[in-house]
Write a structure and sequence with these properties.
The chain is α+β, with helices and mostly antiparallel strands. It is 25% helix and 35% strand.
Length: 150
């Protein structure tokens, strides 16, 4: 598999992030990068938006955010462009995001959380294989998953 890197979203790659596409049935599961980057601007003191890149080309997007009240990191809006799905790039992006969180860029926490729609079977499977488990909490139509980093 090609090497996947996370590159902070900046003026060189934000338009490529805006061009990412999902299958029509997937669009209900994740916010578009335009919305996510607006959130990143609002929460800029506690988050980092990333382009998921293969050979320097943006093929996906995700954002890491720190919640100072809960003292936990969250992964928001992971998406891989429809033409690159099914190749392990989502897993590679998640592993890179977890490595970034291990560097504790915003706070000294080992807790990582995310939310997922239970109907999104591919994402649920990915998170389960990465050792995330349900917390018992929900956010609208999504369940919260958590992992404590070692």
């Amino acid at each position: 598999m090609d090497c996947i890197t996370l590159q902070e979203v900046d003026e060189s790659n934000f338009l490529a992030c805006f061009s990412l596409k999902l299958d029509a049935q997937q669009e209900k599961f994740v916010s578009h990068p335009i919305r996510s980057l607006a959130q990143a601007y609002v929460y800029r003191k506690q988050c980092t938006p990333f382009a998921v890149c293969r050979a320097g080309q943006a093929i996906g997007y995700l954002m890491v955010i720190y919640d100072y009240d809960e003292e936990a990191y969250f992964i928001w809006h992971l998406m891989i462009d429809i033409q690159y799905q099914g190749r392990g790039y989502g897993r590679a992006a998640m592993e890179s995001a977890l490595d970034y969180i291990r560097s504790k860029p915003f706070g000294d926490s080992n807790i990582v959380r995310l939310t997922v729609n239970p109907e999104n079977s591919a994402a649920c499977h990915l998170y389960q294989t990465l050792h995330f488990s349900a917390t018992g909490r929900a956010d609208e139509d999504e369940i919260e998953l958590e992992r404590v980093l070692d």
